[in-house]
Amino acid sequence: MKSNLLQQLFTLMKYSLLIIIIQTISLNLLLADIVNAQKAQSIREVSISLESSQTKLFAILREIESKTDYKFAYNGKDLKKLNYINTSKDKTSVYEILYEIARQTGLDFKQVNQTINVSQSKKKNGGEVKIKTAIEPIKLTGVITDEMGEPMIGVTVRVQGSNTGMITDVNGKYSIEADTDAILLFSFVGYITEQIPVGNRTVIDVQMRLDAQQLEELVVVGYGSKRKADITSAVSVVDMKDMGNQPASNAARFLRGKAAGVVVTQGSGTPGQEMSVMIRGVSSLGTDQRPLYVVDGFPVGNEMGKNLNPNDIESISVLKDAASTAIYGARGSNGVVLITTKRAKEGEVSITASANYGFQNIPDSRRVKMMSGPEYAQWRKEQFIEKSILAGNGVPSIDDIPENYRYPEQTKYSTDWFDEIMNHNAAFENYNVTLSSGKGDVKSLVSVSYLNQEGAVIKTNFERFNIRANIDGKINNFISMGLNIVGSHSNERFANTTNRDAIIGKALWADPREPVFNEDGSWNDYIGGNGGTFGSANPVMELHQTKNTQGRSNLTSNGYMQITFLKDFKFRTSVNTSITNFKRNEFRPSTLAGTGFDQAPPRNATLAESYTNWINVSADQLLSYSKSIENHQFDVMLGYTSQEQTDRSLSGTGNTFPDDEIRFLDNAENTTTSSSESSWSLLAYFARLNYSYKGKYLMSASYRREGSSRFGKNNLWGTFPAVSVGWRLSEEAFMSDLSFLSDLKLRASFGVTGNNNIGEYNNSSNLSTEGYIIGGQYASGQKLSGFVNTNLGWEQSDQLDIGLDLMAFDNKLSFTAELYKKITNDMLLSAPLPIITGFSSTLTNLGKVENKGLELAIGYRTNVGQDLRLRGDFNIAFNKNKVLEINGDNDELWTGGFYGTYNRSTVGRPIGVFVGYQMLGIFNTQAEIDASPVQDGAIPGVYKYADINNDGIISYSNTGGDMVEIGNPHPDFTWGLTLGADYKGFDLNVLFTGAQDYDISRQIEKTTLNMDGVFNILAEAKNRWKSAEDPGNGWIPTSSHWKWERETNSRYIYDASHMWVKSITLGYTLPSTTPVLAGTRFYFNIDNLLIVTNYPGNNVDIDRSDGRSFGDDDEAYPVPRIVTLGASIRF
Amino acid sequence: MKSIYKIVSIAICMSCLSCSDDFLDKSDPTRLNAGTFYQTEEQFDQAVNALYGGLQTIISNQWQFGEFISDNTTLHYNVENRGNGPGLETLEYWQYIEGTSNVQSLYESLYQQLVNVNTVLQRLPGADINENAKSGFEGQAKFIRAYLYFQLVQHFGDVILLTEPIDEPSVAWTYARSPASDVYAQIESDLTDAASVLPPTLDASDIGRVSKGAALSLLGKVYLTRKNYGSAVTTLQQVLTLGYDLLDDYYDVFDPDMKNHAESIFDVQFQGDNDLGEQSGFTYNFYPRQSDGLVIPFPGVSGGGWNIPSLDMIAAYEEDDLRKDVSLAEGYFDQDDNWVAIPFIKKYYHDHSIQDRPDDNWPVIRYSDVLLMLAEAINEESGPGSAYTHLNKVRKRAGLDELDGLTKESFRTAVLKERRVELAFENHRWFDLKRTHTPDELATFLNAYGEIEKANPTTSRGGFGFTSAEYSFQPHEYLFPIPASERLINKELTQNQGYQQ
Question: What whole-number distance in Å separates Cα of residue A170 and Cα of residue A155?
C-alpha cells in the first residue's frame, strides 16, 4: 500500500509540475497582449493625414482627436487668439504636426500617455520648440520572495491605477512595463500588500511580509477553524513562519515566550527531551498539569511526543479558556495545544531543503564550581583539625592527621569530573526536504527529515528519522478525501541524570583527587572509598560503559472523507491511528562500581530490557451546517467521537552475567520477567453553534457529553458546556471616526472543562499477589490492592474569561488583554484515608483551587524607510494560584521529605509552597546557643532556626510546629519578548523570556554542601563557618557537625527570578540576482545564549508542571547553549 | 484510494460499535477483581495465604520495635550518613514522637493487614464452600487478627477496633479508639475460637499454617500479659500435651535445613535461593555496616549495622552458655586480619547461594517460649514450685546448671533473664520488659542501661558525644504515640499521655 501511495504521489508531482509550467507560460502571453493593447503610443509613432493643409488650430486638434486615441487638454483662453495654421496634408506623424503648430504659435505640447497637454510657453517669442512625450515605458523585472527569502509563486504584480498586471512564475520572477512615475503593487493572500514607486529602477526585488494579524486569517480551533475576527475565546496562535529554521529537536521550543500564559520550561538538557508546557498556572492538586495535545485533529495525549518533526508544523494554536477547550471535555482543563502540520499550498509546487549544523556547550557561567583536588584535601585536613579541637583533643600533630590528606599541596591529581563528562562542542545536525504540490484537484506533500543531537554529556545522543506524506483530493464537487501518514523512528542513548546518585550529581561529589585513568591507561574504576570519602563509580567510565538506549517507532495515520450536500451541509468522517513501539535497554557491566555509595567494583552486571506497544485509535464524525441569511451567519456542528488506547508491555531484568560481552537475558544467572496490559476508552457527543450578526455581534456555544472508562460506575458520564460572546465595536457606526482602529473587539466566555489524568483502573477494586510458603512449596495468595471509590468522577474546572482585541494604525499595532478566573473543583486527589481502611489513600473528588490572572500581549511592526522593517512582540502573564478547599479547612497536603524539601498545600495559599525551618543565621558561640530556644545537640557553627510555635524547643520533626512557609515556587509573572528587524537581505530575531519572583529549593546543596567530608563540595565552602572569629560568609555551616544543617530550611531556598536571552537568529537571503542559489537563506542561531539571574544553579527552568511538588533542583542534565549555522533553499 | 475507503469503512464500523457503555467498561486484565473474588474454596485459600504473606513484611520489620528499642541491641553509629536519624535512631534512643516515621509504619502495617483479615472473615459466612474448610479458614484468620491486635494493643494501648472492612470512606474519619480491655476481649475471643477449630497437628502439606498449639500459646501469652495467671497456666499446659519438644542442639533451632521442627510452634515461613520472591529480608539489616563481603559472603556486600547486640546483652550470658556463640558474634576480622569489635547477630546467619535471598524462617512462637511463659505464670500465681521443671528444661539444653531455691522475686528475675538469652533477638524483649515492669520501673531500668551504654558505647560514635535527650526514657514512652498523620485526618482519634495532644 505504501509503495502504491508513493507511486501515486510521484505521478501527481510530475503532472503538477507540467501544469504549472503551461499555466505560467500562457498567463504571460495573455498578459503581454493586454499590455500591448492598452499601451499609449508615442506621438512620434502615430501618423495621420490631415484633411486640409491650412485650418484653424481647434479644427486640427479635433481632427487629431478623432483620428487617434489622443485627447488634448488645454485652456481655451490660451488658444483663442490663434488663427490659421499651415501644415502639411501628407501623412505625417502627430509629432511633426504638433511641432509645426508649436513653431508657429509658441505653444508647448506635452504628451502624457493618451493625453496631450497644451499650454502657452512661459518664454517670450523666439524660444525653442517644446514637445515632450512622457511615454517611455520601462521594462521592470524582479524576484518576489517570502519572509524566509524563498521565491514566491503567484504573487500579483500590478501597476497602480491601471489594469496592467501579472503574477510571478515558479521562480518568483516577474516582468512588467511601467512608467517611471508609476507605483507597483505586490499582493498575495496572507501577506501585506507592498506599494513600491518605480523611480529610475529597472529591477525591483521585493520580500513580502506576512500579515500575521490579518483579520481574515483562519485560526485552527477545536474541531474546525474560525476567522480571527470572529473568535470570542482565548486562543493564542504561534505561526511557524515567524520562527525561521531554528534548531529544534522538540517543537515545544516554538511555544517559548510566544503566547501569554503559556509557560514552557526546559528542565533538562537531555537531547530530544520534551519540554514542559503549562497553561494558566497549576490548577490541580492531584493530577498533572500538562495540556492536551491534538495533532491534525488527533488527540495524542499529554505529550506532543519526541517523534514529532518540528519542521512539519504549519501552525500551533493554544486554547486557553474553557470556551475554546470545553469541546475537548474531560481533557480540556489544562488547556489544549492544537498542532497543524504542513499540507501543500494551493497553487504552489516546490521543493524546500534545509540543513542545520551546530555545536552545543555548557557555558562556564552556568557550571557549578566544586573544589579542586588540593582544595578538597586542604578542607578535609582543616575539618580533621577542627573536629579534634572540638572533641577537646587540641590541635593534632601532623602525624595524627590521616595520610590521605596530610599534605594537601602534594595532592597528585585534580580532576574536574563535571568537565570530564562534558561533551565539548557536541554536534547538532538537522536536515529537511519537503516536496509540495498544490496544483489541481489532488494536492500532496512529502517531507523527509533527519535529526541527530549529541548530548552535552558524553555518550548521550538523540537521533530521529521522520517521513510524512499527505494527500488531499477532490473526487468531485461534493466529495473530498485526504490521508496523512507519518512514520518516525528515534534512537536515544541516555544517561540517568537527576539526583545525587545519578551521573551529574556524582560528577559533582566524586573525589577530585582521583584521576580518570590509571597511569597504565586503564580506567580508574573506583573513585574515593578511602580516608572517609565515599566511594563512587568513575562517572566518565560509567558513561562509556553503561549502555542505556531507548528507541521508539511510530506510525500515525489520519484519514478523512468530507461530503458536501444540500448546499449548506458538510459531513466529515475521520479516523486516526497511532502505533508506537518503544524499547528500552539498560546494561551495567560488572566492571563498574555500584550506583550508590561505597559499592566497589567488581559487581554483578545487571540488565533491564523492556518493550512496549501502544495503539491509539480515534474516530470522529462531524456534521456541520453553515448558512448566511442577510445579516445573520450561522455555523452549527454536531459531532461524535470515540477513542481507545491500549498499551502492552513485556520486560525483563537479569543480573550476574558470566561476562560483560553477551548482554542478553539468556546469559543472566537470575532473571525476572513481567508483562502487562492496560487500556482506556472514551466516547463523546458534542455540538457547537456559532452565530454572528452583521459580523458585529458574535456568539458561540458548545456542549460536550463524555464518558470515560477511567471513572467509577456511578459517574461514568460528564457534561461540559461553554458559551462565549463578542462585540466588534470597530464595526459600529459610532466608532467610524476612530479610523485608526481597524479592529476593536470585546469578548467574554464561560465554560466547564474536565481533567481525567488519573491513570487506569482506579475505579475498580483489584487484588494483588501476595504469596507464601506452605508445606515447603510456594502458595499463591491474593490480597486487596486498593480502596475502591465507585463515585470517582471528573475533576471539573469552571472558567471565566474576559478579553479585548485591538488592532490599529493599519494593523501595525496589535493588542490583546485577557482577564480570567478559573476554579477547579472535585479534584482527582489522592486523599489520605485513615489507615484503618487498610489503605493510606484513595482517589477522591475533593478540594477547590482558584487561578486568576491577567495576560497582555502587544505587537508592533513598522517600516523605517524603504529597507528597514522592525517588529516587536511582548507578552506578559500574571497568575495567582490559591487553594480554596481541601478535605476540610485544616487539611494539608505534604510531599517531600525532612532532608529534602517539603511542599505543602493549604487553604488560602498557593499549591505546594515550600515549608521548612526558618534559618536565622549561624550560632557563633555556645552562649548564643544557651540563650536560644533548645536545638538539641547544636554546637557553634550550625544553623539557628526560628522557634515558630514559641515553645522553647525546635522540634526535630515536621509535625513539631516549627516549620513555616519558606518559599513560593510560583512566579508572580512570566513574560516573553521577541524583537525582529529586516534590512535588505538580512533578518534578525531575538527572543527573551523571563519569570519573576519565584523560588527554587536547591536540593543538590544538601549534597554539594554536605559538610561531613564524605563528598567533594562547592568551592565556595572554603568560606564556611570556622569559629566565632572566622564565621565565613554567614550561610555555610561548620564542618564539624551534621545536625541542624540539612533539614528542609530557608537557607536552601533561592529566588530564581530571571531573564533568558533564549535565542538569537541572524539570517541573510541571497538576492534573486545572484547567479547561483538565488533566494537561498543562510542563517546563524544561538539558543540559550545568556541567563541573567541571581540563582546559582545551572538552570532556572525547574519543571513546575507535575502534581503539587515542584521547584526542587536536584541537578538535572544541564541545558546547553546551542550555536547553529544553516541554509535553506527552495526550488 | 483503496486504503481510504478501508479506513472510512472502519470509521463507520467503529462509530457503531462504540455506541454503548460497554465500550467504556475496562477492567485491569493483569489482576483479579475483588468484586468477583472470595467465592470458591480455592479463592479463600489464596486469600488466607496472603494473610500469612502479609505477616512476612510485618515480622521483617519487627526487630525495630521488639529488640532494637530495648537493652538487647543498639546500632553502629553512622557518622557519615545521618539519613536514618529521624527514623530508626529515635527508637534506639527513645526519642520517638507523633511524627516518627517508623512508628507510623508500624501502625500502618498492622491495619493494612487487618483489612485483608476482616475481608476474609466478612465474606466467609456467606460462601458456599465445604464447612470444614470454612472453619479452617476462619480459625487461621482469627489467629492472625488476634496476633495483629495483640501487637497493636501492646504498642499503642487503646486502638480502633474493627472486625469488618470499611466500605465507605466517609465513615472512616470518625472512628474512636476502643479501650484496651475491649481489644483484649476480642483477641481472647478470636484465639479461643481459633484454638477450638484448628488442628493439633498439621499435615505435611499444611506446614507453615497455624495450628491449635499456636493459638493456645498465643492465648497463654495474652493471659500472661493480662496478668490472668490462672488462665495462662491452664492454657499453656494444654500446649505441653501436643507433642512439642526442645531440640537437643540450640543451633538446630534456627538452621534452615531443620525448618518447622518439634520446637517450632509457629514460624513465619521464608524460602530463599530461588526466584519465588519469598526469601527473608531481615538478616542483612543485622550485619556490620562496613564489613564489605567479610561477613556476608558476597563481594562488596555489607550489612545495615542495625540491631547489633549491646555489650550489656553480651554480658548477660552466663559463662558456658552454649547459646551465646549461636546467637551472636562479638566482632569479625578485616582483610588484614585485624579484629573489628562490632558485634552482630549470628542466629540467622546461614549460607545462601544467591545474594539478598536468605532462606531463614522467623520463629514467632517456640516451645521454649511456652515453657518459660509457663514458668513465669506458675511463679506469679503460686511461687516457683512446679515452675522449676520448665525453666530448668530450657537451661539444661543451654548447658547451664539447674536452678533451685529461689524466692518468687528472684525466680521472676531468673525467668526474665532466661527469656532474654534463650529468646535473644527474636523480638520478645520489649514486651517482656513491659509485662514485668510498670512504666516508672521501666524508666528506671532503661535509663540505667542508657547510662551504661553512654559511658561505654558498644560501638564508636566517631567522636560525637551523646546528647542529653539520647537514652533518656520517660514513663509515657511505655506506649508509642498514635501517629500524627492519622490524628490529622480523624479528629476523634485521641493521643496517648505525654505526647503532643
Answer: 10
Grid coordinates representing B80 are 557519615
Whether A571 contacts chain B with CB within 8 A: no
Nearest by CB: A640 against B15, B50, B270: B15
Q: A 385-404 residues with CB below 8 A of B?
A: 387, 390-391
**Cα separation values, B357 from A220, B307, B327, Å:** 60, 19, 20
CA atoms within 13 A on the CB side of A748: 1
Q: What is the spatial distance between Cα B244 and Cα B251, in angstroms, rounded to a whole number?
A: 17
Distance CA(A11)–CA(A3), nearest Å, equals 12
The answer to whether A597 contacts chain B (CB < 8 Å) is yes
Instruction: Report percent pLDDT > 90 for chain B.
Output: 77
Q: A138's torsion region: left (phi>0), alpha (psi -120 to 50) or beta?
A: beta
Q: CB B489 to CB A887 under 8 A? A: yes
Nearest CA in chain B to A474: B1
pLDDT of residue A612: 97
The alpha-carbon gap from A616 to the nearest alpha carbon of chain B, in Å, equals: 13
Which helix (H) or strand (E) segment holds residue A396: the answer is: none
Residue A832 sits at the chain B interface (C-beta within 8 Å):
yes
**Burial group, residue A636, by CB count within 10 angstroms (0-12, 13-18, 19+):** middle
Report ipTM (2 d.p.).
0.93
**Which residue, among A747, A751, A748, has the nearest Cα to A805 in the 3D structure?**
A747
| Cell of residue A815, nine digits | 493588542
DSSP state of A953: B
Q: Give, for A134, the enclosing helix (H) or strand (E).
A: none
Region A820-843 average pLDDT: 86
Selected residue of B5, B14, B96 to mutate for chain A interface (largest A Cβ count, 10 A): B14
Q: In a 10 Å sphere around its CB, with 0-12 CB exposed, 13-18 middle and 19+ buried, how is residue A572 labelled?
A: buried
A934 touches chain B (CB under 8 A): no
Q: Does a cis peptide bond (omega within 30 degrees of 0) precede residue A602?
A: yes
pTM over 0.90: no
What is the C-alpha to C-alpha distance for residues A385 and A398, in angstroms, rounded to an integer? 10
In chain A, the residue whose alpha carbon lies closest to the alpha carbon of B81 is A1012
Reported as a single tens digit per residue, the pLDDT across A496-544 is 887 788 899 999 999 999 999 999 999 999 998 888 888 899 999 999 9
Say yes or no to pLDDT of A35 above 70.
Answer: no
Nearest to A765 among B35, B85, B278 (CB): B35
Instruction: Name chain A contacts of B94, Cβ cutoff 8 Å.
Output: none
Q: Flag if B31 and A766 touch (Cβ within 8 Å).
A: yes
B144/A contact by beta carbon, under 8 A: no
CA-to-CA distance for A280 and A853, rounded, in angstroms?
8
Q: Is the dihedral of CA A495, A498, A501, A507 positive or negative?
A: positive
Among the listed residues A696, A805, A711, A791, the one whose alpha carbon sits nearest the alpha carbon of residue A759: A711
Chain B residue nearest residue A388, CA to CA: B463
Give pLDDT tens digits for A690-732: 999 988 999 999 999 999 998 887 888 999 999 999 999 988 8
How many angstroms separate the CA of residue A1100 from the nearest CA in chain B?
Answer: 28
Query: Closest Cα of chain B to A926: distance in Å?
Result: 15
Give the β-pairing of A115-120 and A71-73. parallel
What is the predicted pLDDT for the residue at B2?
46
| Residues in Cβ contact with A364 at an 8 Å cutoff, skipping those fewer than 6 apart | none
Q: Which of A682, A835, A942 to mutate to test the interface with B (most CBs of B within 10 A)?
A: A835
Q: Which helix (H) or strand (E) holds A793?
A: none
Query: What does the block give as the cell for A984?
Result: 535588505
How would you list the strands of the sheet with A206-207, edge to edge? Answer: A173-178, A138-145, A206-207
Inter-residue contact A455 to A492 (CB < 8 Å): no
Comparing A14 with B270, which gets the higher pLDDT?
B270
